[in-house]
């Protein structure tokens, strides 16, 4: 006998992982250069040199036993202090090292935070389109995911729809800006409106509704776009941060949770975070990568490649007749499928060796996600295939 819910999750991969595996098989059959794999958000630019320099220095200079030993369950105190200092200097905030918890990336940050905040049957609002794993993280301990579609013209939160979805059981809302899969960045106006709405609803419910800010793409923005610091707008905020994307380190698994000191019952929330980390076995994030953080925090990989890809792909696809959501951040392009059924569209795209993710599991049917964190050469080589795919629909009309 096994836990059937878990068996189900293990037996059937996410659409993204399924396509990624298909891509590996297809590349072995016809050569990697002939497959245009836009399936997964694996950064394609190397980490900045300071990452390896710092790791090498730590290994050369630090006592090996302590370097590789356990840290405190919530993370090394000095490292938490460095993270708080950085946030306070950068955002004029008052982050507290005693309210920071080091994790193995944003996925763990989210699972821990949701476990800390919810009981069975509590509700968590997800702004669609959303990262499909949110549903898995929310439902893990019996809480209920409540998808609320964003305004599909702007991909900003639809405040009226959120208001209508809030019930006395609403415990949290997850926001993800810059967004996977749309690349949209929440505007200051959207944040102010959402914060006001959540304050009013919390008061009505007699319990705080927490804002969980999933921020693995915080630094990945283009032009003069800014990502506002959410605790300045809404006190009951937890930030789930990850170094996976900004530093091109997704395989190393390092990130953190920050509980805003101004949150109602901040200490109790942090204790629940520590308890959830303990219950889930997410204690003492990888020590070597913790010790790297003070040296590298705030640095990014060279994201100019993503910017080049973004412009190239959006302009070309628009010129072929695709409807493209203008991305301000992250490294995804959200494109309207050329037929109603996005899965059928993705199957046809495969005939052109284009691997695109159908948007159904993002809670917003009818679109595809293109991860443009690939080489610019791959984008250039794929353009004739995108053009031919569009033409195959035109000739049908
Ligand atoms: N949240 C979003 C929106 C993501 O896109 C991802 C990964 O792609 C994650 C969380 C998980 O990030 P991590 O690799 O840090 O666990």
Assembly category: single chain
Task: Count the beta strands.
Answer: 12
Provide the list of bound ligands, each named once: pyridoxal-5'-phosphate
Q: Percent range for helical residues?
A: 40-55%
Mean pLDDT score = 96
Strand order of the largest sheet: 2-8-7-6-5-3-4
Regions with little confidence, pLDDT below 50 for 5+ residues: none
CATH architecture annotation of the largest domain: 3-Layer(aba) Sandwich
Evaluate the radius of gyration.
21 Å
The main β sheet shows up as: 7 strands, mixed
Report the portion of residues in β strands: 5-15%
Structural class: alpha/beta
So what's the overall shape? Answer: globular
* Total separate domains: 2
Main CATH class of the largest domain: Alpha Beta
Look at the structure and name the CATH superfamily of the largest domain: Type I PLP-dependent aspartate aminotransferase-like (Major domain)
Account of the 3D structure:
The protein is an alpha/beta fold and about 400 residues long. It folds into two domains: about 5-50 and about 300-395, Aspartate Aminotransferase, domain 1, CATH 3.90.1150; about 50-295, Type I PLP-dependent aspartate aminotransferase-like (Major domain) (Aspartate Aminotransferase, domain 2), CATH 3.40.640.10. Helices cover about 45% and strands about 15% of the residues. The chain is built from 14 helices and twelve strands. It has helices at about 5-10, 15-30, 50-60, 65, 75-90, 105-115, 135-140, 160-165, 190-205, 265-280, 285-295, 305-320, 340-350, 375-395; strands at about 35, 100-105, 125-130, 145-150, 170-175, 210-215, 235-240, 255-260, 330-335, 355, 355-360, 365-370. The strands form three sheets. A seven-stranded mixed sheet has the order 2-8-7-6-5-3-4, sandwiched between helices. Helix 9 (about 190-205) links the parallel strand 5 and strand 6 (about 210-215). Helix 3 crosses helix 11 (about 285-295), helix 6 (about 105-115) packs parallel to helix 7 and helix 6 (about 105-115) crosses helix 10 (about 265-280). The longest helix has 19 residues, at about 375-395. The protein is globular and about 60 Å long. The N and C termini lie far apart (about 55 Å). The model has no long low-confidence stretch (mean pLDDT about 95). Bound molecules: pyridoxal-5'-phosphate (PLP). Pyridoxal-5'-phosphate binds near residues 106, 180 and 255.
């Amino acid at each position: 006998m096994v836990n059937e819910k878990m068996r189900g999750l293990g037996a059937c991969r996410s659409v993204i992982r399924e396509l990624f595996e298909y891509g590996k098989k297809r590349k072995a059959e016809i050569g990697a250069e002939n497959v245009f794999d836009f399936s997964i958000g694996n950064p394609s630019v190397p980490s900045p040199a300071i990452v390896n320099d710092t790791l090498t220095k730590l290994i050369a200079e630090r006592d090996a036993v302590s370097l590789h030993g356990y840290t405190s369950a919530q993370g090394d105190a000095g490292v938490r202090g460095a993270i708080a200092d950085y946030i306070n200097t950068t955002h004029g905030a008052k982050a507290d090292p005693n309210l920071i918890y080091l994790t193995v990336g944003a996925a763990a940050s989210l699972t821990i935070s949701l476990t800390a905040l919810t009981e069975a049957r509590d509700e968590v609002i997800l702004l669609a389109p959303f990262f499909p794993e949110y549903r898995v993280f929310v439902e893990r301990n019996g809480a209920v995911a409540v998808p609320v579609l964003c305004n599909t013209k702007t991909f900003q939160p639809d405040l009226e729809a959120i208001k209508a979805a809030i019930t006395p059981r609403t415990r949290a809302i997850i926001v993800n800006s810059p967004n996977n899969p749309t690349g949209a960045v929440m505007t200051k106006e959207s944040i102010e409106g959402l914060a006001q709405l959540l304050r009013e609803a919390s008061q009505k419910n007699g319990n705080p509704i927490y804002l969980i800010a999933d921020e693995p793409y915080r630094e990945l923005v283009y032009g003069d776009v800014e990502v506002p610091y959410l605790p300045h707008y809404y006190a009951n905020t937890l930030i789930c941060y990850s170094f996976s994307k900004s530093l091109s380190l997704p395989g190393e698994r390092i990130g953190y949770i920050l509980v805003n000191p101004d949150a109602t019952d901040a200490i109790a929330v942090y204790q629940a975070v520590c308890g959830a980390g303990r219950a889930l076995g997410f204690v003492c994030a990888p020590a070597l990568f913790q010790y790297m953080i003070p040296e590298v925090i705030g640095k990014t990989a060279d994201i100019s490649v993503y910017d080049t890809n973004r412009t190239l792909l959006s302009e070309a696809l628009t010129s072929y007749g695709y409807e493209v959501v203008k991305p301000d951040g992250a490294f995804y392009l959200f494109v309207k499928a050329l037929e109603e059924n996005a899965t059928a569209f993705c199957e046809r795209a495969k005939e052109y060796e284009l691997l695109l993710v159908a948007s159904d599991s993002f809670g917003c049917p009818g679109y595809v996600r293109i991860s443009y964190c690939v080489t610019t050469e791959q984008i250039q080589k794929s353009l004739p295939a995108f053009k031919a795919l569009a033409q195959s629909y035109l000739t049908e009309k």
